[in-house]
Amino acid sequence: MVVRIKRKPVEELDFLVDSVLDPHTPPLARVEPGETVEIETWSALARVTNPVTGPIYVDGAEPGDALVVEVLDIELPGQGTVAIIPGFGSLEGWLRLLEPRRKTCAISDGRIAYETDDGRTLELAADPFIGTIGVSPEFEAITSLSPGRHGGNMDCPDVRPGNRLLLPVFRPGALFKLGDVHAVQGDGEVCGVAVEVDAVVTLQLGLRKGWTIGWPRIESPDEIMTVGSARPLEDAARHAFREMVEWMASDHGWERDDAYMFLSLAAKARIAQIVDPLYTVVAKLDKKYIGGV
Amino acid sequence: MVVRIKRKPVEELDFLVDSVLDPHTPPLARVEPGETVEIETWSALARVTNPVTGPIYVDGAEPGDALVVEVLDIELPGQGTVAIIPGFGSLEGWLRLLEPRRKTCAISDGRIAYETDDGRTLELAADPFIGTIGVSPEFEAITSLSPGRHGGNMDCPDVRPGNRLLLPVFRPGALFKLGDVHAVQGDGEVCGVAVEVDAVVTLQLGLRKGWTIGWPRIESPDEIMTVGSARPLEDAARHAFREMVEWMASDHGWERDDAYMFLSLAAKARIAQIVDPLYTVVAKLDKKYIGGV
Amino acid sequence: MVVRIKRKPVEELDFLVDSVLDPHTPPLARVEPGETVEIETWSALARVTNPVTGPIYVDGAEPGDALVVEVLDIELPGQGTVAIIPGFGSLEGWLRLLEPRRKTCAISDGRIAYETDDGRTLELAADPFIGTIGVSPEFEAITSLSPGRHGGNMDCPDVRPGNRLLLPVFRPGALFKLGDVHAVQGDGEVCGVAVEVDAVVTLQLGLRKGWTIGWPRIESPDEIMTVGSARPLEDAARHAFREMVEWMASDHGWERDDAYMFLSLAAKARIAQIVDPLYTVVAKLDKKYIGGV
Amino acid sequence: MVVRIKRKPVEELDFLVDSVLDPHTPPLARVEPGETVEIETWSALARVTNPVTGPIYVDGAEPGDALVVEVLDIELPGQGTVAIIPGFGSLEGWLRLLEPRRKTCAISDGRIAYETDDGRTLELAADPFIGTIGVSPEFEAITSLSPGRHGGNMDCPDVRPGNRLLLPVFRPGALFKLGDVHAVQGDGEVCGVAVEVDAVVTLQLGLRKGWTIGWPRIESPDEIMTVGSARPLEDAARHAFREMVEWMASDHGWERDDAYMFLSLAAKARIAQIVDPLYTVVAKLDKKYIGGV
To answer: CB–CB of B94 and C93 under 8 A?
Structure first.
């Protein structure tokens, strides 16, 4: 039986508890490692800023462990919203005179319809993922708009069904929260907004005890990935690549400088977003190069 | 008949003329638009810093035109070199105690062999491209280590056979130079060096008269791309994305803010390199969204 | 009569409440606008990271007001500590092989003695100020290591006796906290640490009702100042300068572009620190240019 | 007898030679070390971008030496110009709708008159300095808009009469150029323009043979200074502070980590400009702390 975790009614959302990842909010639910849960999430454009559902207390999670999140499924609604929000977005001040805009995109059968201003309909394949997903920081309450070592608003399309997200645990129970599902997003999320949707996310939560990591990590069937967030953007990339070097060294026997040279030949690097309080880069390496993970 | 443009003997390389893209060096060759040329290039690790072959004067090229470079073929040698150069590389100061390293990688049948420090041989598919390729700046002589609006050391793997590079022309004849072929490179070129090779490059050079562009652009069979370079890295991304918005607006009828929103859903963004004097980002859009280019 | 606000015993310090500026911690004291208080502060090197004393609830403070902090006096102890903390500091990775260091500096009669490694004693004039001082953010609990719109760890030497600090109010009562007094600090606080001391600070707290400001501001007898914090450092400067333009426009009748040009001739800009999670710049303008404030 | 070096007639200015610092332009004059020269300079707003007068060949200057420039006098004209140039300036995109502006400021008796838009006249004390001053780079021709290790467009108010500028020599004869005098400038030069003037500058040029420095340095009667330029701005500060540590270590017997800690207590840091292709920071230390220089 899969537990369903309901989101709050929209009128009860309170940014002091629902727009942060934090160690203070009382758990909304408690799960055993290995358990599968269905979680209802709000769109980032709901009544308060980017509300997140949770926290979920994972039994046995302790600082120094890694939380293992298997993303099993994301159920999309029939439409989503994209927008221009002046004062927000990567080309703010680089394009002249941006005005507020909002478009609704129909979603059906895994296709998203974008209506251009000149009347064409462009179809994009839905590629849903969880934009904001993370654990409680060690002692701060961090806005759900920001990514960081705790996960948070990474806006990383690789947090998608079929992939596994690994998060460092800082507080007992991990205190996991999530929200901000995107039906599809381009790299950089350049205007600051993707196709924002309410959604139902199915996850299996587990633990790797005593596996201490510095930044969020992702495994797909073919790749290992590390997710760094910082400003300026090159520091996000440096965090991601250093974390990859550490992973290759600690778990796969590489010398650090050898790993560094090899990544210079074989890594991939995606800009996840350049619009949030910290920017996010994902570094990737094909699993065939490291032995089975 | 294909013209062959020979590189200088290594002992004649002079960094005052061979390590810059500049308006002063007398042309090494002169070509008609539409002509195909074979150009010998030096490895970036040759006697002077990143030597470039040229300049090639393209008849009829005038400021305000775009130079069209069809990359037809890259002939690789039997081996290449990767290295760690202390003081250079994206994790300088982030990984402790980096010492100089140099490895030779055998290349054959489109495969590159990387020998790890613990004795494994990892095979990478060769994916050769031209690391440094550009035209004369308007009035500066810019080190061949730096990318910019003029192209230069973009270290962008998309400048590969089968793709078309478009460069703004700033000086009569364009004064095109190139070098620094990489047999393969990871995104970010994180240690500062790829598999560096001497090579022979086959190109067809053409012109789009009166087509004024702000930054280098690339066309593959499936995508259009823009290449921005700056520090910090987010400004490289902003240049690339703004140039993409301009391209969509000027040639394909998009409203600028509509293009901006759509890129937020559909763009790809690759980090080309974070090791040169300016960093480089490539923004990409699938051609199916813009109508045929 | 001056109220004395005691700091917690060191063994009771808890980073969940004492290393953040936040809306959740119950007030330690309550004051009327106009009241003078003496506050005991811990050194940033105390048992938990940069502990702050408070919060102090200021009666009548509401979001949209400005909290007015007159810094009257700072009482220094007989010694302070400077240190190198590897992994922290502006030249981390730029100077090789930094090892942990710690030096005690004697303080007496307003003089600080620095003993160099080669046995000289250098005397610096004490110039004490409050390194970390701020109000509760709107809904986050921000680490006391970070500066921001709410004040926090600005490490700005202009928050000194004789000057007035103005802070935006985000929560009822303002929820003011402070700590991290420095006996003296250089611009940039380059190694990450100044002469860190426990101290007793005397302040008068007041309100400007309905005076909404974007960033902390300071008034000395001769200058008005704005304090911006961000990464990269140029964005800290931009926040500070834009806030100065806004101040000149809203309170002193300047056209914004006229203020912008005039600041280009007359402003001063000090780098406060380049070591904290966000960096801090102080922009200054002589009061003679704006009419009496 | 003082040699007078005339600037070119304005109609002969050519940006290929007059808007760069470069190793190619034939010397305009040749001087002996110790010689005093009067040099006419153009305003940065002259016909071509930021024209510089020179190059001046200093007899005996070799790579690895330092060029010593004693700034003796700057003769100002009766007026100067400040402007807003859209697309240029630190708050471009941060203030809305900047339009081109230009104001003339009368200069007399060491006073500069700024007429505000609302009809007030504000008087600033003239504090003239040389905005662009440097030597030839090793092999590039760098735009006179950019600062760097070679000096160039540092826009640093400390290059003023009474102070001594020290520049690294990269080419035989140093190939010294200068221009862009400012009658007064605020820190940051925030709108991108100061009070721009044509001027006559009196300098004495000398050499420190075999004194190899990494970045421009300045000595005033009371302070030693280092000038770093980079993007982002924190890297400019890091270059300046590391150069100061090196100076203290190599010439004054400090241990590097001791110098680093001491600068954290005693340094000053001014933002020179945040508008040019690289940004500039000046780090300063009181001479009383280092022994006589």
So the answer is: yes
